[in-house]
Amino acid sequence: MGNASYGGGVIELKTPAEIEAMRPAGRLVASVLTALRDAADVGVNLLDLDALAHKMIREAGAESCYIDYHPSFGASPFGKVLCTSVNDAVLHGLPHNYKLRNGDLLSVDFAASLNGWVSDSALSVVVGDAREEDLRLIRTTEEALAAAIELAVADNKLGDISAAIAQISHDAGYSVNTQFGGHGVGRTMHGDPHVPNDGRAGRGLKLRPGLVIAIEPWLLETTDEIYTDKDGWTLRSADGSRGAHSEHTIAITDGAPIVLTDRANV
Q1: Tens of pLDDT, residues 47-86
Q2: CB atoms within 10 A of CB 16
Q3: What are the structural domain ranges in the chain?
Q4: Inter-axis angle of helices 16-39 and 46-60, nearest 10
Q5: Distant-in-sequence, close-in-space partners of 127: CB < 8 Å, separation ≥ 6
Q6: Which residues define the annotated binding site?
Q7: Which of 99, 154, 182, 184 is in the most buried spot, having the most CB atoms within 10 Å?
Q8: Could you tell me which residues are annotated as the binding site for a divalent metal cation?
Q9: CA-based torsion, 147, 91, 31, 207: positive or negative
Q10: Which residues are annotated as a binding site for substrate?
Q11: 141-166: average pLDDT
């Protein structure tokens, strides 16, 4: 791995061979999220979804990035392998004994390490009968992610990615929270640079081949304010409105970006 003094700090730039070595982790994360999306249904317990992901991690010979994760903002080690955020929860949802109900909006975030390399991805779905407002919210995060990935090319700026997310979100009528966003990915789940979900085009870090980042727009329906649940992890909307979250791990190359967690390849 090439460590470059870059952007005011040390940011890891991967060689083409290292990006190829990251592909199996990306495929695993994509396959787990695909299985979870298919398994999520009315009456399914969040703990059963977590158990399914844990089983797939073990079978792949991989390691969870979440189970021992204990950053400064977490009350304790996370203890599960998935983030399952339901309705007014949008990020870091701690799986618990809850059976999904008709109309629930579920966001699932998952990261794993395979052969020493990490990938990180998230999706949102509605279980059972969907409200149009929820589908629109999910669709906006997906469109923002797609727009950001299009601009994740060498010689563009990090602000181009952030501005694309913000424009799609604001044009749809949503406000944007910048407390949590995307990040560098490599041997560990979270590294530099931070990738905000709002910013100015043409500003910030110059994107270089070998940079691998997770891009993750997330939105709440009628607010951009969040609070931490009493479980010490789950982030919920301040006004009770629903949230959605989309994320992919991508590699910047000399050409088009590589979406390492693309579920179309599963």
Answers
A1: 999 999 999 999 999 999 999 999 888 889 999 999 999 9
A2: 12
A3: 15-265
A4: 140
A5: 40, 41, 42, 44, 100, 101, 102, 103, 104, 105, 106
A6: 92, 109, 120, 183, 190, 216, 247
A7: 182
A8: 109, 120, 183, 216, 247
A9: positive
A10: 92, 190
A11: 98
- Into which CATH architecture does domain 15-265 fall? Alpha-Beta Complex (3.90)
CB 145 within 8 A of CB 120: no
- For 115-168, give the secondary structure using H, E and C: CCEEEEEEEEEECCCCCHHHHHHHHHHHHHHHHHHHCCCCCCEHHHHHHHHHHH
Structure tokens at 242: 């629903």
- Residue written as token pair 């944007």: 176
Residue with tokens 């906006």: 140
pLDDT tens sequence across 105-151: 999 999 999 999 999 999 999 999 999 999 999 999 999 999 999 99
